[in-house]
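#struct-pred

JT: dropping the chains for the assembly here, can someone run the whole complex?
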Amino acid sequence: MAVITKKIQLNTKGDTDIIDITDRIQEELSKTALTSGITTVFVPGSTAGLTTVEYEPGLIADLRTYLEKIAPKSGAYQHNLRWHDGNGYAHIRASLLGPSISVPFIKGRLHLGTWQQVIFIDFDNRPRSRELLVQIIGE
Amino acid sequence: MAVITKKIQLNTKGDTDIIDITDRIQEELSKTALTSGITTVFVPGSTAGLTTVEYEPGLIADLRTYLEKIAPKSGAYQHNLRWHDGNGYAHIRASLLGPSISVPFIKGRLHLGTWQQVIFIDFDNRPRSRELLVQIIGE
Amino acid sequence: MAVITKKIQLNTKGDTDIIDITDRIQEELSKTALTSGITTVFVPGSTAGLTTVEYEPGLIADLRTYLEKIAPKSGAYQHNLRWHDGNGYAHIRASLLGPSISVPFIKGRLHLGTWQQVIFIDFDNRPRSRELLVQIIGE
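RK: done, full complex below.
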C-alpha cells in the first residue's frame, strides 16, 4: 500500500468552463506502479468543482443551463455586494457541486462507464490557472 | 493495510428508482477481514448516483419531487435533441448528485446514523442492470 | 500506511447552521504522525452535510438563500405529513449535498485553497449535538 501525489495543471476560460480531465487523471495514474485503489481528485479553491458526465456537446450545454437555473450569474448575492467581484454565483455552484471526486481503479485503469468522463468545472468569472491534486491510494 | 474490490449487482426500474443498498454494502464489507477504513461505492455510468437518506416512503417521494424541480423530466435538453433518447434529465441529475459515496467503517461496521441509509438512485428512463463497485481500503 | 480514526464534537444551532471546521480537522490530523494521504469527514445522520466554501458572511448568507430556493423550509414534504417533525427540507438538503467530504493532505497539512474552508452544515430545525467521524488514511 502506498500514497502517491500527482498534480494536473489546467488553464481554463472560466465562466462555467467544463473540461474533460479523464485522460489526464489516467495518465498520472499510469505513471505509478499501483494497480488497485482509489484516486481522489481535489481542487484547492472555492469557485470550481468536479463530477462526471457523458461528455458530449448537448449535455455540456445542458449542465450549464441547469446550473444557471440553480444559481444564476445575475442573481442577488451578498458576496457581490461585499466584494464587488461578481462571482457569488461561482462560489455557490462550487459549494453545491463539491471540490472533490473519488474514482476507484482496478488493474491500473479508472473504473468508469464507457460514456462517463470526469469533468472539472471552473465557475469563476474569468480565466484561471488551476492546479488539481490527484491523491492516489492503493497497492 | 489492503485494498479489496467487491461488486454489487442491481436490477432497477429506472425513472429515479431509489434503492436502499446499505445491507448489500455491509454484506460485502463483512466478507473481508478488514475492521477499520473507508468504503467507496462507485457507479460506472452517467445516469445514476449515490447519497444517503432516512429511507422512509415520505422522504423517498420528497426526494423524487425535489429532483424533478431541479431537472424536470419534461424540461428542454440539448441532449434529447441530439440523441432522441429522452434521458437528458437523468444525466443532469446524475452529474449534480455525483457517482460515488465514501462511508467510513469501524470495528467492521459502516459508521452510519441510526436513521441513515446509503441509497443508489437510477435516474435513467428505463429499467437497467447495474454493477456498482465497492472499493474497500483499510486494515 | 495506517488508518487512524478521530472524532469531532459539535453543538449546533440547527436551521442551516454553517460551521467552519477546518481548524478542527487539521487539529485531529496533526495529532497523528501521518504526512500524506486522505482525510474523509463523515456525518452519521440524515439532516446535515459537508462541503467547502470561502467562509465569509456574504457567502454564508448566500448559501442559505440558495439552499432555501432548492428545498424551501415551508415547502410541501410527505415526510412532514407522516412524521410531523417539520424537517423534511433538512433531509432533502442533506441528501443533495451529501454526508461526507474527502480532503487530501501533504506534509501533514490539508491541501486547501487560501480562501477555502471545510464547512459542516446542520440543516435540522433544532439545535443538535453532532459527532463527526474523521477517518484518516495515509503514511
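JT: nice. The interface with chain C takes residues 1, 36-38, 51-54, 56-59, 61-63, 65-66, 69-70, 96-98, 101-104, 106, 111-113, 115-116, 119, 137-139 of chain B (CB under 8 Å). The CA atoms of residues 9 and 131 of chain B lie 5 Å apart.
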